[in-house]
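Example 9 (inverse folding). The structure is encoded as follows.
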């Protein structure tokens, strides 16, 4: 089998057929799961993609604001939109 469908930097080594097969099987399993995004609690930047079976604590680093902390995935199931201050000069259209 060719490894043409798996993108990686060949400067760091070659991909063995066993590892390539595991990557392909993982791709197929992910297609059947519901995914969500883990966003930075400070700036809202997308940190990682999380799938339905993931739980526990994850050590993350935000590439935008450089927050580096462990996050409990149970606390970050759904991030609500930030509440912006109301501008009295802007009215909503109905």
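The amino acid assigned to each position is listed next.
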């Amino acid at each position: 089998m060719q490894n043409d469908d798996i993108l990686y930097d060949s400067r760091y080594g070659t991909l063995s057929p066993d590892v390539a097969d595991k990557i392909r099987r993982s791709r197929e399993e992910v297609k059947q799961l519901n995914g969500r995004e883990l966003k930075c609690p400070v700036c809202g930047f997308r940190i990682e993609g999380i799938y339905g079976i993931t739980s526990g604590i994850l050590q993350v680093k935000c590439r935008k604001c450089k927050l580096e902390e462990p996050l409990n995935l149970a606390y970050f199931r759904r991030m609500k939109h930030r509440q912006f201050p109301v501008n009295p000069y802007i009215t909503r259209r109905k």
